Amino acid sequence: MRTALTIAGSDSSGGAGIQADIKTMTANGVFALCAVTALTAQNTTGVTDIFDSTPHFLAEQLDAVFTDIFPDAVKIGMVSSAELIETIAAKLKEYGAKHIVVDPVMVATSGAKLLRDDAVTALCEKLLPLAEVLTPNIPEAEILSGMTIQNAADMERAAQTISEKYGCAVLCKGGHQINDADDLLWRDGAGKWFKGRRIDNPNTHGTGCTLSSAIASNLAKGYDLDTSVERAKAYISGALAAMLDLGHGSGPMNHMFALKGDFVE
Ligand SMILES: Nc1ncnc2c1ncn2[C@@H]1O[C@H](COP(=O)(O)OP(=O)(O)OP(=O)(O)O)[C@@H](O)[C@H]1O
Ligand SMILES: Cc1ncc(CO)c(N)n1
């Protein structure tokens, strides 16, 4: 069985972060490994508190994983401080990790800030150059490119700028602002649009975590990047289309939409 590692924060509401990643990897047929960067006290209406792992304890988790079950792909999500980012970058280099997907998580769907301002530089200098693909949404792409994005042409310019700056592919997500379900992949000097069917579902908590984990799962299984993005979009469309409705805010998706009924021996 292929394996994928998520390095991310825990979401107590189960819809984003490590929990979304593990469900996504499992649903996509790979064995999920995890290293927790932080605990968040969070639900569908917001984040009330964050408790960071120490850099030492994060390094211990990464050593434990890489020296035993070497992951076929790695997904990185919420990492709130420069010290934790530096720890991850050093360990990924030490072990020669492959197929690294970085979701540059900065702000939660609910508006909570998940990355400290002083950590943006560490993210850009240490982690982004290790990535095979980055998956920013529009506000994140604006910060990483230093440009304002108002339309599809701006998305293309920003993705190209980020890709050239950090030497990796960039999947800029149209998200909830421009072309809801249309994402742009910029790689090797050219852009390709992945058009999605817009699903009228207000419950989008954890969509970014889910998409990046689905891409990592497909890379782990040996698919090329274009195919991995295509398959990840099909997966997230299925999870959104299942129309789960939990909680008082923007709720989680049904990651297990393809499971049929209860397990019986
Ligand atoms: N209503 C929708 N219908 C279909 N696909 C959608 C919809 N909303 C988002 N998506 C898709 O979900 C994926 C994640 O994109 P999104 O822009 O929501 O990420 P994000 O803003 O990083 O997520 P998060 O809210 O978890 O931080 C993308 O592939 C996007 O096209
Ligand atoms: C732990 C965690 N990671 C990422 C996100 C982004 O959706 C979130 N809300 N919570």
Secondary-structure-based class equals: alpha/beta
Biggest sheet record:
9 strands, mixed
As a percent range, the share of helical residues equals 25-40%
Give a list of the ligands.
adenosine-5'-triphosphate, 4-amino-5-hydroxymethyl-2-methylpyrimidine
Form type: globular
CATH topology: UDP-N-acetylmuramoyl-L-alanine:D-glutamate ligase
Strand content: 15-25%
Overall average pLDDT: 94
Number of domains: 1
Poorly predicted tracts of residues: none
Order of strands across the main sheet: 3-2-1-4-5-6-7-8-9
Q: So, the CATH homologous superfamily?
A: Ribokinase
Q: DSSP helix count? A: 8
CATH top level is: Alpha Beta
Distance from first to last alpha carbon:
22 Å
Whole-number radius of gyration? 17 Å
CATH architecture: 3-Layer(aba) Sandwich
Tell me the series of helices and strands, N- to C-terminal. Answer: EHEEHEHEHEHHEEEHH
Strand elements, count: 9
Explain what the structure shows:
It is a single chain. This protein is α/β, with parallel strands linked by helices and 265 residues long. It has one domain: Ribokinase (UDP-N-acetylmuramoyl-L-alanine:D-glutamate ligase). It is 38% helix and 20% strand. The protein contains eight helices and nine strands. The chain has helices spanning 17-27, 55-66, 82-95, 119-127, 138-145, 152-166, 207-220, 225-241, and strands at residues 3-11, 31-43, 46-52, 73-76, 100-102, 133-134, 169-173, 183-187, 190-194. It has a nine-stranded mixed β-sheet with strand order 3-2-1-4-5-6-7-8-9, with helices on both faces. Helix 3 (82-95) links the parallel strand 4 and strand 5. Helix 3 (82-95) packs parallel to helix 4. The chain is globular and about 45 Å long. The two termini are 22 Å apart. The mean pLDDT is 94. The structure holds adenosine-5'-triphosphate and 4-amino-5-hydroxymethyl-2-methylpyrimidine. Adenosine-5'-triphosphate (ATP) is lined by residues 16, 109, 137, 173-176, 180-181, 183, 196, 198-199, 201, 204, 206-209, 211, 233, 236-237, 240. This is Hydroxymethylpyrimidine/phosphomethylpyrimidine kinase. Belongs to the ThiD family. Residues 11-254 form the Pyridoxamine kinase/Phosphomethylpyrimidine kinase domain. It is an enzyme of class 2 (transferase). Keywords: ATP-binding, Kinase, Nucleotide-binding, Thiamine biosynthesis, Transferase.
